[in-house]
Specification:
The structure holds 2 protein chains of 2 kinds. By secondary structure, chain A is mainly alpha-helical. Chain A is 73% helix and 0% strand. Chain A has 1 helix and no strands. The radius of gyration of chain A is 20 Å and the shape is rod-shaped. By secondary structure, chain B is mainly alpha-helical. Chain B has 12 helices and 2 strands. Chain B has a two-stranded antiparallel ribbon. In chain B, strand 1 and strand 2 form a beta hairpin. In chain B, helix 10 runs antiparallel to helix 11. The N and C termini of chain B lie far apart (59 Å). Classes of the chains: A mainly alpha, B mainly alpha. Chains A and B meet through helix 1 of A and strand 1, strand 2 and helix 3 of B.
Amino acid sequence: MDVRDDKPAVDQDEIRKRQRSRATVTGLVLGALVVLFYAIAIVKMTGA
Amino acid sequence: MNSIAASPTGQTAPQAVYAHWRDFVALTKPRVLTLVVFTGLAGLLAAPGHIHPVLGFTAILSIALGAGAAGALNQWVEADTDALMKRTANRPLPAGRMDRQVALHFGVGLSVFSVLLMGLAVNWLAAAVLAISILFYVLVYTVWLKPRTAQNIVIGGAAGAFPPMIGWAAVTGDVSALPVALFCLVFFWTPPHFWALALYVRPDYARAGIPMLPVVAGERETRRQIWGYTAIMAVAAFAPILLRLTGPIYGTTALVATGIFAVLAFRVFGSRETDPSRMKAERHLFRYSILYLFVMFGAIALDGLIQARAI
């Protein structure tokens, strides 16, 4: 753990807000990947 | 890695640097990505043969993720020098908005994922070239060449030249003369493009101790080399026409666009301006060089689409 006083303080509310937005984006990315992998699987199986 | 920041009450408390998701996007150098994706797409469209749109999309996505991963690893390596330059000081790592270890994990994870996605969904030749381009950019360019030699971007330019080849390989499963010619075009385009920028941000590079050509060899030599590499780039641009690998759209576009590039590069060659803030010719060449690559690869893609329709 390094000690640096020059970094800006980020309050807990801000951290929670970032956690929520990161969780939302991660969820969206994972959802998109599920759709993509499904589409790839269909294309590979049908040999299109 | 935690840091301690002062609380509103004046006391200090342990607090992790929790990056915003936008910082992860910034880590991938999104502006560079547009050019990478576009040249990769052009290579894919110019290739003879057919690829299912889903697999074509996956190939371009893999190229984008791979390039983004390389950008993230580049920023991880260069965090300290980035902090010294005005142009890069606000990136997530030098600005202290993200932990270095997080950036490293993100970069490595994204690299592995992009190569596996390309290999499993498209083909392993395209995946291998993608892996080589990531390793080349991170290890050969960023770690080895950039801090050591003024010719860093000449050899390092190869990293940015791979996408059209990957796009082509995604469709055909091989690499033939046209993708090699496209590789050469981007390879020889890189020095005049980067050195035009390096001329007017030279103080930044000097402060960061990066041996870019204007810093170690001076402005006159850089301008001479910009002109020299422009001539070689022109040969690479005309090679597909001479080898009859492309159609009339690329031929006409290459003649006009490369002609304008040569005029702008000649203006840089003839310039004696020493004040970076007044280097207009250099700024014009840098901006035009980006447009040039878009126009040239747009023409290649259009030619490929027309030829595919004619068959």
